[in-house]
Design the sequence.
């Protein structure tokens, strides 16, 4: 398999996406869920059905879905099938332009997923687009914390799972690939604000949905030559987005962790609060709702479970 990566934003038509079928491990009760930092118990038969519904919905829209678990070597299959977080592939890597940046797990529990996936990526992507050594100098870089706003602008959160030091080491790679501005925000370090995409998400080519509290946070804006500060809304609007501030986000994962399938279509959880998408610019959107409730019990949503590798 050879994949030619290309993603310059969050909303162009999705051609190829990497995913991973959920673990076969059950989380039988709330005590176990609490210990592994999940929201609720999980039944693997139900997660498998939810995963199938989600992948079928994307395939019907013409998206090629690549389940990386099915490509793992036989000797890793049994072990890898027991990794409960493996379905949350967004954190593993990010395509920025034609560059595939490998992530680094923010917690040791997830390190095996990164190793196994990156070993596959080494064979799937051209050598000048992906280097398995590129994350050797970073200590925590999970791409649920990254939004590609435009081909030249990226928005990153440094919080529970991504370190400021890792972002600093990433910047030179981005300058080389034509990114001219990177905004870095440091959001509250709680379970419900763990990653950037649990706080805000691109809903249209000119619209960002965000939790209202984010308006109070400054952003450190980096260019190749200097850095400065501005408020979050000023950084977002300078890159062509209006912001739809939302207070009605009651279930963080379901409400805001959706996926742009193309500029006209959003893939959304059936549990998402309808008011979250109640905006003039979204009235004509094709909203595809899928039941991923059992998967969301693991603390991640649709965006968390998808790694776009080609948008055109």
Sequence:
């Amino acid at each position: 398999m050879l994949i030619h990566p290309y993603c310059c934003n969050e909303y162009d038509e999705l051609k190829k996406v990497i995913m991973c079928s959920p673990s076969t491990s059950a989380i039988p009760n709330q005590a176990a869920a609490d210990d592994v930092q999940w929201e609720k118990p999980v039944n693997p038969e139900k997660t498998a059905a939810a995963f199938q519904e989600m992948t079928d919905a994307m395939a019907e829209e013409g998206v090629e879905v690549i389940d990386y678990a099915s490509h793992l070597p036989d000797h890793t299959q049994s072990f890898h099938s027991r990794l409960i977080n493996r379905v949350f592939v967004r954190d593993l890597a990010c395509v920025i332009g034609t560059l595939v940046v490998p992530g680094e797990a923010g917690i040791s529990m997830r390190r095996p997923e990164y190793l196994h996936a990156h070993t596959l990526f080494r064979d799937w992507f051209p050598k000048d687009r992906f280097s398995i050594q590129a994350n050797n100098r970073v200590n925590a870089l999970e791409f649920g914390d990254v939004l590609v706003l435009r081909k030249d602008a990226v928005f990153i959160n440094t919080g529970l799972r991504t370190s400021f030091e890792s972002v600093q080491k990433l910047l030179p790679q981005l300058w080389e690939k034509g990114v001219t501005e990177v905004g870095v925000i440091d959001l509250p370090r709680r379970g419900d604000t763990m990653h950037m995409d649990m706080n805000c998400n691109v809903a249209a080519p000119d619209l960002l949905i965000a939790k209202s509290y984010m308006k109070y946070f400054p952003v450190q804006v980096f260019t190749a030559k200097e850095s400065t500060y501005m408020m979050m809304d000023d950084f977002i609007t300078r890159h062509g987005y209006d912001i739809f501030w939302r207070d009605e986000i009651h279930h963080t994962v379901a409400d805001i962790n959706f996926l742009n399938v193309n500029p006209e279509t959003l893939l959304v959880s059936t549990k998402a609060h309808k008011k979250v998408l109640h905006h003039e610019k979204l009235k004509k959107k094709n909203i595809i709702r899928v039941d991923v409730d059992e998967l969301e019990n693991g603390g991640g949503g649709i965006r968390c479970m998808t790694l776009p590798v080609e948008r055109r």
